[in-house]
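Worked example 2:
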Amino acid sequence: MRKFVDNIRRSLKGLVRRNPKLRRAYHRLRGRLHQARLTTGTAHRTDGVSPENIVWIFGSGRSGSTWLRSMMAEMKHHRVWEEPMVGRLFGDFHARAQGGNLLSSDFIMGDPIRRGWIQSIRTFVLEGIRLSHPRLTPNEYLIVKEPNGSTGAPLLMQALPESRMILLVRDPRDAVASSLDGAKGESWLHEWRGGDQPNRQNLADERPDRFVRRRADSYRRHMTKAREAYEAHRGRKTLVRYEDLRTDTPGTMTRIYSELGIFVQEKDLAQAVERHSWERLPESEKGAGKFYRKGAPGGWRDDLTPEQARTVEEITGPLLRKFYPEDPAPRA
């Protein structure tokens, strides 16, 4: 019965994800209902999350973050904040600031007033959590899936140093290959971005080499900042490679919780791993052009041309050599 319900839920989610009009209607309705609960007071606001119970997932897109957060969401007293993009809000703005601005106390994120705006980021995040998760209690954990906001990871971890962090890493060649497949016409990402616009130029189809270069550069920017935050963080943290998570899911999940210092029942963890295993996914939701594509490391060798693979290796070389010393990018 549980498997049947899971399949129905996945089918509905897939339908919403593939249909832009249905997706917009769903989020509009959900947003209005949430706003109504806050306005009428039926949301039962609490004191909110304890900062030390926030668990950030940083890294890059197409790195397995959806899979990881889905397993973690199964644990008791765990809730999810799904890609709030708060890291992008502050990180991208700060990264694009000119050097002169950063030195000025007039600039809103200038170095002379850093102490003040770091505190403001902390307040902004905690109040955002209270509004988006009004029923969250201090005894619960909030898993923040934020791979596409990883440019702001150093600022977020400085603002909330007591929170916990997962650095999720995937071979950039596989991450880029997955993005390339997903962005092509009729694929899930193309539809998600507005596939109902038939005349819209699709870079993945028309200029795939340029698309690969852009995605590799995006991976480099996100992972570089996520790594910076991880190395500077003095609180609970763990480094997870997608390849290890795929090869030994139970063992890697046990290690994650051990290093984060969060107690979970072994039975609950085993059930979560089983429920979200690759084998449990319906065949209709797996394969080329689907959100769940291969689930196997190393597929980039078949998906990328030799030139495209070299492009990714040139752009992400230092990260490859750091996280994949057994199969590093060649040095320039």
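The mean pLDDT is 89. The CA atoms of residues 283 and 292 lie 10 Å apart.
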